[in-house]
Amino acid sequence: MVSVREMFNTYIDRRELPALAAVSSEMAAFDDYLKARLSESGIDGLKVWEYGKLLKFAGDFRGLRLLDIGPGESTFCLFLARRGANVVTIDYPQPFAPGIEGFRSRCRRDGVAVNCGTMVNLPYRDGSFDMVTCISTIEHLDTDREWHPVNRSQFIASTKDSLAEMGRVLRSGGYLYITSDACDLQRQKTDNWGLSKLYNGIGAAYTFHEIEDVFVSTLKQMRFKFVNGYDYRSSLVLEDPGRANYRGRYFSTFAILAQKGV
Question: What pLDDT was estimated at residue 24?
Fold first, then answer.
């Protein structure tokens, strides 16, 4: 684990990408899927930042019991298993991923456990894992399993329930790593995400203020500590050209890295 005052709990910053690309170089060589995602220019270095921040924090995964929530068909969980983690995945039986069965077969061959279920009600005992990862997934609680939008209050309630479940299955001292998207709904009028048509507008995102009102508040109540503090001021995205704006001018991706209190 790093000991420097690295800022993990904030928004994607383009200026970090060169260093994080070096950290992620082994992952880029792991398979074609990760190579393509790490070099995908249309998402502004998003995956280099999302994956790289975690790798920079926890370079050694040997022996860690790790739960990866909602991997879709991302082979990052397989990479973590190669790094020595004992990985369990959980996702909907038929998530929005065309190659899901082939991916799950590869997981099983490589010793990664595959479970079906929902993060709102995780089928694991208290304290089962050393680390829980949920990368670009929790925002999809704004749809049901048939990919129909749900109302905002249900979305936020499901988010809080899922955070509680992630905290429950983590051991004391374990780490939670989440990435998701946030935007300014008052100023964001268009969405360049390919699946925005599901919502007839903006979807699969929290507002900037909900990062603190929902995520920070809920995790603090559960006695989580944010690694090296946090800075989720919306001005970091809206006023800083060095920050990345994913899916539009008033969109960005944020990360949470927090440790469960002992």
Answer: 93
pLDDT value of residue 67: 98
Taking the C-alpha atoms of residue 189 and residue 168, their distance in angstroms, rounded to an integer, is: 37
DSSP 138-197: GGGGGB-TTS-B--HHHHHHHHHHHHHHHHHHEEEEEEEEEEEEEE-TTT------TTGG
Looking at residue 97, what is its pLDDT?
Answer: 75
Contact 169, 127 (CB under 8 A): yes
In sign, the C-alpha dihedral spanning 3, 134, 129, 97 is negative
Q: Tell me the torsion sign for CA atoms 214, 218, 220, 226.
A: negative
Report the domain count for the chain: 1
CB 202 within 8 A of CB 191: yes
Q: Give the domain extent around 193.
A: 14-260
Q: What pLDDT does 132 receive?
A: 98
For residue 8, being part of any structural domain is answered with no
Residues facing 11 on adjacent strands: 254
- All residue ranges of the chain with pLDDT < 50 are 1-3
Question: pLDDT tens for residues 46-75?
Answer: 999 999 999 999 989 999 999 999 999 999
**CATH no. for residue 166?**
3.40.50.150
* 152 within domain boundaries: yes
CB 31 within 8 A of CB 49: no
The two beta strands, 65-69 and 86-91, are parallel
Contact present, 62 and 84 (Cβ < 8 Å): yes
The answer to whether residue 193 sits within a structural domain is yes
